[in-house]
What we know:
Elements: H1 3-11, E1 24-30, E2 33-35, E3 38-42, E4 46-51, E5 55-56, E6 77-78, E7 81-86, E8 91-102, E9 105-114, E10 128-129, E11 141-146, E12 151-158, E13 164-173, E14 179-183, E15 191-199, E16 203-210
Parallel strand pairs: 1-4, 3-9
Antiparallel strand pairs: 1-2, 4-7, 5-6, 8-9, 10-11, 11-14, 12-13, 12-15, 15-16
Amino acid sequence: MPLARLLLLLLAAFAAAPLAAQTTHTVTLSGFTFDPATLTIEAGDTVVWESVQGIHNVNGTTASYPDNPEGFGNDIAASPWTYEFTFDIPGDYGYHCDVHGGPGSGMSGTITVNAPSSVEDDLPAGMALSAAAPNPFRDETAFTLTLPTSEVVRVAVYDALGREVEVLHDGRLPAGTPVTFTWVPATARTGIYVVRIEGATFRALRKVIRLR
Length: 212
């Protein structure tokens, strides 16, 4: 997929968003079909393929589907088996079984991954919180917070499954002075992350997208 198109898809996901519970979807492989063959899910959801009959695999690699935002798949094997993949990047994905189909034909399926729903920040009067920039990013991203009164603030990064990845700050911040927080992830994979900023009087979220 051209980088410009990928950036457009990822930018559509940029908004403050709650850490909603993620969903697991099951696709059954039996005979010559995926059931269901078409799925619409949210970024951060997991799809589990369960092969209950026959010899199958899941091929959603970028070699077979160059327009897939990222690749996924497993090796051909006799049933029973399960394979799961968590979709962090919004976009349209195709896949097939190498034994019984090909790209867009035979035993094949599609998955549409939507960005999570967004909400507005709940900030008290006099507080300022910038957008994260750059976003999407590769090496680092940052945002600035200005408090009207001094208070203890915790800033932490979570992945699309709601797991805490890194704590950027946990302590008191001064009033009236802009404070910049920078996230420089060392090993975080490509995908959507949520920065949660919480104090005694407010809670805000910033969604950031890492490209590698």
